[in-house]
């Protein structure tokens, strides 16, 4: 009988896959931001590198308004292509208290 | 295509238009940004109306794809792919939505994804692109679908 893969092992493997996908995602977002005059702000568990199996990837877009929709779409697609679940929002939409709350975690890309 | 094929599609289109229109009305209300119960209700109403409007729009588009035997988009990106495909000419059919309306639909799609995850960390008073997109869809979508039909 083949060795049983425990739930803990499955969970650890899923987290490892997610961490590898995040490592692959960041340079892609950085390059896009540099090429389009803006930044992506990573925050939450992705920025802290404390991803769980069910973690989404929290990203704020910080681009000139005409470029925001395309930057948002790019980040979503870049996440989906790597098996990651994106949660994207323009920085300009955020409440001040929310920005203050996440400030310590923010990793600027671009 | 018979008229009966379009009954559910027409219903979904009407529902989407009504919800987008209501959302625009909420956003345009004088107390939309008020820090009181009425303001909170208007903001919640806006977010729910846009989410409901976009869901009805998706239902209409999916039913149209079914009607013309075009496979539904699949995978994690299917919501975005559906709008992208609706805005393009593909084999044996023209675009279902003109490019500007598809862009508005993509805006409400993004908004729905955001609003469905958290209601309280963004300021509805700053989301003017979404309000404009909902207004665009409420005003012009039925005509666009009718032209496709």
The amount of beta strand of chain A, in percent, is: 15-25%
Estimate nothing, just give the exact number of structural domains of chain A. 1
Report the span from N to C terminus of chain A. Answer: 50 Å
- Output the structural class of chain B: mainly alpha
| Helix amount of chain B | 55-70%
Calculate the mean pLDDT score of chain B and round it. 90
Q: Structural class, from helix and strand content of chain A?
A: alpha+beta
Biggest interface pair, counts: A-B, 18 and 18 residues
The CATH topology of chain A turns out to be Beta Polymerase, domain 2
Give me the Rg of chain A, rounded. 16 Å
What shape does the CA trace of chain A take? elongated
**Helix segment tally of chain B:** 5
Q: What is the C-level CATH assignment of chain A? A: Alpha Beta
Overall pLDDT metric of chain A: 94
Extended strand count of chain A: 4
Radius of gyration computed on alpha carbons of chain B: 16 Å
The total beta strand count of chain B reads 0
Poorly predicted ranges of chain A: none
Unreliable residue stretches of chain B: none
Q: How widely separated are the two ends of chain B?
A: 9 Å
Query: How are strands sequenced across the largest beta sheet of chain A?
Result: 3-2-1-4
Describe the protein's topology.
The complex is a heterodimer of chains A (110) and B (149).
Chain A: H1 7-35, E1 39-43, H2 45-48, E2 57-62, H3 65-81, E3 86-90, H4 96-102, E4 107-109
Parallel strand pairs in A: 2-3
Antiparallel strand pairs in A: 1-2, 1-4
Helix pairs in contact in A: 1-3
Chain B: H1 7-28, H2 37-67, H3 78-86, H4 99-115, H5 128-148
Helix pairs in contact in B: 1-2, 1-5, 2-4, 3-4, 4-5
């Amino acid at each position: 009988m083949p060795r049983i893969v425990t739930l803990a092992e499955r969970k650890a493997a899923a987290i490892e896959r997610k961490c590898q996908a995040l490592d692959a995602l960041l340079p892609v977002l950085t390059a896009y931001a540099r090429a389009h005059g803006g930044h992506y702000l990573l925050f939450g568990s992705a920025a802290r590198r404390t991803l769980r199996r069910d973690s989404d990837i929290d990203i704020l877009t910080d681009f000139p308004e005409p470029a925001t929709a395309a930057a948002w779409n790019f980040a979503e697609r870049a996440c989906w292509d790597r098996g990651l679940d994106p949660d994207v929002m323009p920085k300009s939409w955020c409440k001040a208290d929310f920005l203050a709350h996440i400030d310590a975690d923010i990793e600027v890309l671009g | 295509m018979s008229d009966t094929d379009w009954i559910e599609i027409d219903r979904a289109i009407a529902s989407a238009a009504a919800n987008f229109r209501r959302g625009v009305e909420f956003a345009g209300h004088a107390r939309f940004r008020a820090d009181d119960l009425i303001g909170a209700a208007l903001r919640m109403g806006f977010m729910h109306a846009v989410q409901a409007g976009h869901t009805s729009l998706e239902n209409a588009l999916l039913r149209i794809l079914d009607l013309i035997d075009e496979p539904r988009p699949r995978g994690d990106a299917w919501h975005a792919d559906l709008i992208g495909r609706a805005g393009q000419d593909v084999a044996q059919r023209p675009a279902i939505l003109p490019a500007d309306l598809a862009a508005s639909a993509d805006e409400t799609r993004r908004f729905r994804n955001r609003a469905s995850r958290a209601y309280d960390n963004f300021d509805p008073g700053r989301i003017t692109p979404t309000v404009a997109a909902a207004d665009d869809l409420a005003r012009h979508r039925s005509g666009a679908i009718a032209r496709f039909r």
